[in-house]
Give the backbone structure.
Amino acid sequence: MRKLIYALSASLDGYAAGPDGDLSWGLIDAELHRHFNEMERGIELALYGRGMYELMSAYWPAADANPDASPEEVEYAQIWRAQNRLVFSRTLPEVGWNAELVREIDADEIRRLKALPGGDMSIGGPTLAASFLRLGLVDEVRMYLHPVILGAGLPMFLPEAGQVDLRLVDAHRFSSGVMMLRYTIPGRG
């Protein structure tokens, strides 16, 4: 059975994005980027909300054509383009880049997809993750804590998720000071 993993970078005070969607605070150096690339190679199906899809599809399809792109960015762009995606949105008219548009969350369909053989599934974006957490569909949470306090912004965990009990199974400190905390959800991970 495949796992559904919610992985996202956050500030020490829990924000996935700063005010007005600012992401410039993230410390994505070569070491962390290689880690993300390795993680993404194991993801067979990525589930995005509208905001995360628009953010990713605005940059990654052609990122490897940028002459200033690092080797890690070139590799990630290739991984991203090959990855299959479900994009959950009621407002987008269409999606591209190996993506299928889904208008509503069907928990039974997600459970069916999780039961298929193959690589894991990931979920991107706090709003969509809150719905999946509330429905008991997420198996693992990976929080990448960056050594910065933002004071405001978009929280990684929205109140709509409700209470979710977690069990710490791994922690890793990157040389940049970013800390990865990997949790499973008892009974699911």
Remarks:
- The mean pLDDT is 95.
- The longest strand covers residues 4-11.
- The domain at 4-184 is CATH 3.40.430.10 (Dihydrofolate Reductase, subunit A).
